[in-house]
Amino acid sequence: MHFTATEGIEVVGRLTAESRYQGGPGVIHGGILTTAFDETQGMACMLLGTAVVTGHLQIDFARPIPLGSVLEFRARIDGMIRRKVYTSSEVRIVEGAAASDEIVATSRGLFLKIKPEHFTPMQEFVDGQPTGLPTFGDSTL
Ligand SMILES: CCCCC/C=C\C/C=C\C/C=C\C/C=C\CCCC(=O)SCCNC(=O)CCNC(=O)[C@H](O)C(C)(C)COP(=O)(O)OP(=O)(O)OC[C@H]1O[C@@H](n2cnc3c(N)ncnc32)[C@H](O)[C@@H]1OP(=O)(O)O
């Protein structure tokens, strides 16, 4: 996906519904759409300047999305409480046979701000390759 920061804490991302993303016949798989929402809302959180992980993500699939559609996702920060960042996003078909102003799916997500050490226990699994870095069982962690 490609992202653009707009005014305020909002990002816009575009994704083409390629054939390899097919779920039901001729339409995009809901899991792909979910991943794209996760990425877009996560990217909005990155504008805060801290790393986050997804805690909770809820999608409403309002319309089937034909393969070949160009999708535009818009995501924003709705609020923050302590480490919790509340986000929302919607998607429209902006190019293709089904293009219109109608919102075809929406998402609400809770992201949690994390420290870099969050990933330390997983270092040995990065890219599935042994890294020689400390592991879960290492008492020095
Ligand atoms: C994946 C990359 C992220 C790294 C970023 C770094 C660089 C990346 C650069 C560019 C990338 C740019 C954009 C993309 C970014 C992100 C998009 C993809 C993100 C993912 O795809 S990421 C994978 C899936 N994700 C996980 O792998 C999380 C697994 N999970 C955990 O690691 C823990 O579960 C954690 C950390 C979430 C919380 O654990 P914790 O111990 O730190 O916090 P704790 O439990 O104390 O909760 C504190 C307060 O949050 C509330 N709370 C917690 N969870 C809640 C829930 N589910 N629902 C409602 N409330 C919840 C509590 O109720 C409490 O609330 P209160 O403050 O009011 O008491």
From TrEMBL:
Domain Thioesterase: 26-96
Alphabetized UniProt keyword annotations: Apoptosis, Cell membrane, Cell projection, Cytoplasm, Fatty acid metabolism, Hydrolase, Lipid metabolism, Membrane, Transit peptide
Membrane topology of this protein: Peripheral membrane protein
Major location (coarse): membrane
Domain of life of the source: Bacteria
Compartment(s) where it occurs, according to its Swiss-Prot or TrEMBL record: Cell projection, Ruffle membrane; Cytoplasm; Membrane
Pfam families linked: 4HBT (PF03061)
InterPro entries assigned to the protein according to its UniProt record, in alphabetical order: HotDog_dom_sf, THEM4/THEM5_acyl-CoA_thioest, Thioestr_dom
Catalysed conversion reaction: tetradecanoyl-CoA + H2O = tetradecanoate + CoA + H(+); decanoyl-CoA + H2O = decanoate + CoA + H(+); (5Z,8Z,11Z,14Z)-eicosatetraenoyl-CoA + H2O = (5Z,8Z,11Z,14Z)-eicosatetraenoate + CoA + H(+); dodecanoyl-CoA + H2O = dodecanoate + CoA + H(+)
EC numbers on record: 3.1.2.2
UniProt record similarity statement: Belongs to the THEM4/THEM5 thioesterase family.
Protein name: Acyl-coenzyme A thioesterase THEM4
Organism per entry: Rhodococcus olei
